[in-house]
Design goal:
- This protein is α/β, with parallel strands linked by helices.
- The chain folds into four domains: 106 residues, Response regulator (Rossmann fold, 3-Layer(aba) Sandwich), CATH 3.40.50; 112 residues, Transcription Regulator spoIIAA; 94 residues, 2-Layer Sandwich (Transcription Regulator spoIIAA), CATH 3.30.750; 61 residues, Beta Barrel (OB fold (Dihydrolipoamide Acetyltransferase, E2P)).
- Helices cover 32% and strands 22% of the residues.
- The chain is built from twelve helices and 18 strands.
- The chain has a five-stranded parallel sheet with strand order 2-1-3-4-5, with helices on both faces.
- α7 packs parallel to α8.
- The longest helix has 23 residues.
- It is globular.
- The structure holds iron/sulfur cluster.
- Iron/sulfur cluster binds next to α5.
């Protein structure tokens, strides 16, 4: 087998972070990453099972690999790796099925004798981070919540968390290399509990925010039922914690929330948002929502729409319900027609565009701090502010400032972005 590899990542931040660990693992054994998969000895797909469309990509990709590059070994890891029906369907095309927890054992499948990582948990393997200024640091893996539509607890198993010291040390080592953005990730960061010490997520976040350096820290994702006042206080009191809170609402109707097994009511969700907005003025609130959940009638959808109007979200990831094998909701009657799901998605999108546009007005004619992420062909730059808003910088002769914090004067706003001129480096 050629010692070259190509990784395709589908899905969330956690999968991206897993890909970085797989890359480091293989590089430690002398493999080299190649951009052209037809030249790879090993082709790895980090799969996502959250939606049918993400799953379907694999049914197209794997047969293609075998045609394009029959000598390559193929590896399927990520959320679909333990699914029996997927294993049956792709049996002919996948050489190695690798639940991500088994990454330290990959050498056995590849016929490599040295056991470099055999004694480690997979999250203890260093990541090969492609970005030079922003890093995802997983604080744990798995979920215990069993929302009725979600595959994560089956795909990734129950929650396991890393010791706080290991997480803080990893953050510190990236800051020493000059990184400017630390993103702490887990399926539900608020459930974090150090395996040995009495450290919960608010204390962990405070420790990371307390490290030396010119940086900011984000986190994702949170479950509304677990958001504590302690966490809100840490966000409010620490300049280095970005004023952006992402937590999924999924529905604005109590009966639908009950069927989703979300374990909070709309009233409780509203109360959390009110507490956050009161303590952290100007914070951006973003969310995930599902439209067309089994049995969701017009009135129940109208409740979600009303909530969208009232909360005034800055961004939302709106998805149409699709049944996921193994989950409880897969046994419910998927009775909202596709065309109606689409219509509901579009209605929420209209509200979102309006609320986000309204929120963005707040930044007009202000100077804001932006972390530059890249430069376009025409010379202009783009980045994000601490609220996670995409900011475009008109100036074309400022060179490549990727990975630098700058000050931008906002002159124009749109529904999902801000535009302005550089006023300070
Ligand atoms: S909290 Fe619910 S939606 Fe989120 S990962 Fe866990 S089961 Fe899935």
């Amino acid at each position: 087998m050629k010692k070259t590899f190509h990784i395709i990542t589908i899905g969330c931040q956690m999968n991206k972070s897993d890909s970085e660990r797989i890359a480091f693992y293989l590089e430690s054994y002398g493999f080299k990453s190649v951009a052209d998969r037809s030249k790879a000895g090993l082709i790895i797909v980090v799969t996502c099972g959250i939606r049918q469309s993400a799953e379907d990509r694999n049914y197209g990709l794997f047969p293609k690999f075998k045609k394009e590059n029959p000598k390559a070994k193929t590896v399927l890891t990520g959320c679909l790796s333990k699914r029996k029906d997927v294993q049956k369907r792709l049996k002919k095309y996948v050489d190695i099925w690798l639940p991500i927890d088994d990454l330290p054992e990959l050498h056995k499948h590849l016929g490599l004798r040295s056991k470099k990582f055999a004694h480690r948990q997979y999250l203890e393997i260093e990541p090969d981070v492609k970005s030079l200024f922003s890093v995802f640091i997983p604080i744990g893996n798995g979920c215990n919540n069993f929302c009725s539509y979600c595959v994560v607890p089956y795909a990734r198993g129950r929650e396991k968390y890393r010791p706080a010291k290991e997480i803080v040390d990893e953050a510190r080592s990236f800051l020493k290399k000059g990184y400017k953005e630390i993103v702490l990730i887990a399926q539900n960061v608020n459930s974090y509990q150090d395996p040995k010490k009495n450290i919960r997520f608010p204390q962990l976040l405070k420790k990371v925010a307390g490290l030396k350096g010119n940086f900011w820290v984000r986190f994702s994702s949170s479950h509304p039922k677990d958001i504590s006042d302690d966490l809100i206080d840490v966000i409010a009191e620490n300049d280095k914690v970005c004023k952006h809170f992402h937590f999924a609402v999924q529905s604005g109707d109590n009966e639908v929330l009950r069927m989703m097994n979300r374990k909070y009511s709309v009233e409780q969700y509203r109360a959390v948002v009110n507490r956050i907005k009161k303590k952290v003025p100007g914070i951006a609130i973003t969310t995930d929502v599902i439209v067309g959940f089994p049995g969701e009638n017009k009135k129940q959808f109208a409740n979600t729409k009303k909530l969208f109007n009232d909360i005034s979200y800055d961004m939302a990831y709106i998805s149409q319900f699709s049944p996921r094998p193994q989950t409880v909701a897969a046994r419910f009657k998927d009775d909202v027609p596709k065309v109606e799901k689409k219509r509901r998605e579009e209605e929420l999108m209209k509200v979102l565009r309006r609320t986000s546009m309204k929120n963005n007005q707040f930044f007009l004619n202000k100077n804001i701090k932006v972390l530059i992420e890249g430069r376009k062909k025409d010379g202009s730059s783009f980045g994000k502010n601490e609220q996670g808003k995409v900011v475009k910088i008109r100036d074309k002769k400022i060179g490549d400032l990727s990975g630098k914090f700058v000050l931008v004067h906002i002159e124009e706003v749109s529904d999902f972005g801000l535009k302005g001129s550089l006023v300070g480096k």
